[in-house]
Amino acid sequence: MRDRTATRIAWTLFALCVVLAAWSLVVATLRVGGIPDWAILLVGFLAAPAVGALIASRQPANAVGWLLLAAGLSLGVAAVTDGYVQHAATTRSEWTGELAALYFAANTAYFGLITIGGVGVPLVFPDGRPLGPRWRLALHAAALGLPLVAIGVALESGELAAYGIESPNPFGLDEAPWLPQAFAGSGLMLIAAGAAAAVLSVVLRLRRATGEERQQLKWFAFAASLAVVSLAASFFAWALLGWEDAVFDVALSTLLLIAMPVSIGIAILRHRLYDIDLLIRRSLVYGTLTVATASSYLLLVVGLGWAVRAVAGQGANELAVAATTLLVAALFQPARRRIQSFVDRRFYRSRYDAARTLAAFQSRLRDGTDLEALRGDLLAVVGETLQPTRAWVWLRQPGERR
């Protein structure tokens, strides 16, 4: 495919994703009588196809860009179809064949999005090709598993309850209820096998990669870790703290939808590729510091509050909160330095050793007067920290012209 043709196709598909996203918003607005709470999610909806179009237009041979466009189209089709089903469900009392078909089509499109993002993209990232011919079997397994799941769900017998409608499934196989379960179960196993192979593929690539490819995989792994942390935070807020704030869920979902495609785009297009080391370092430092500070604050508030109430009565709880706040603020900078030192020693040992070597040389430089000894020290420090192939030191002799 020529670059110009690929560019036209890629941006045409992205325009189609924009139309689908806008239409889904229109349908939802008509249904609820106003702009829905999830409208900001449209930014996240369009992140994947936008990055996909950018990659496909610049690197048409890289399958990652086309997979991201396919994910955007799947999400757009799912949103439009699902919105229509919800709108039609307000005037229906039972499932008709047409409405049930659209409902199953929307679910299939959503599941296709998960399959593309969880199997297809990791298997071919970052060069657009699997690790080897055998790894294509994982792609084939996921591609086969998706229609099997869709068929199994659509043919499931019994009541179909969704969007306020509860009536028999018009496509249900009441005579052979085991058949849809067999289809869905086998499809899920195939997709799960493909997902496991995709994770293993990323791990093997990361272990073998060097140079730019390793930095690309770091971006991908960082975005995946961010997604896991965001999901864990959402579960913590819902299960332990009892938060059911729609704004919180929408913000996390938007973050998830944007972080992964943006990281993939940075990695493949190599824009600020080597900034990932600094980003990971700061995330480790400030993430650990945030958790430690919040935990210490809660423990101190509980402990000091109990002690102050036991001594001074119930009215002195504000004193405990103020004292805890001042104590945590005083410990913030020392804790940050210790955590950063630990992170550098554990994950960035070469940089930590280089910084220590330079600090030791600086202290010797203040006390040294022998130029020959300092020249030897300087060459040793440069060789240990920068590791050049060759190094020279030129010292201007007294009376020598520049």
Structure description:
The chain has 402 residues and is an all-alpha fold. It folds into 3 domains: 269 residues, no CATH class; 61 residues, no CATH class; 53 residues, no CATH class. It is 77% helix and 2% strand. It has 12 helices and 2 strands. The chain has a two-stranded antiparallel ribbon. β1 and β2 form a beta hairpin. α2 packs parallel to α8, α3 packs antiparallel against α4 and α5 packs antiparallel against α6. The longest helix is centred in the C-terminal third of the chain and has 37 residues.
The major pleated sheet works out as:
2 strands, antiparallel
Q: What's the arrangement of strands in the largest beta sheet?
A: 1-2
What is the overall shape?
globular
Count the strands?
2
Q: Write the element-wise H/E pattern from the N-terminal end onward.
A: HHHHHEEHHHHHHH
Keywords:
two-stranded antiparallel ribbon, 12 helices, 402 residues, globular, 3 domains, mainly alpha, single chain, 77% helix
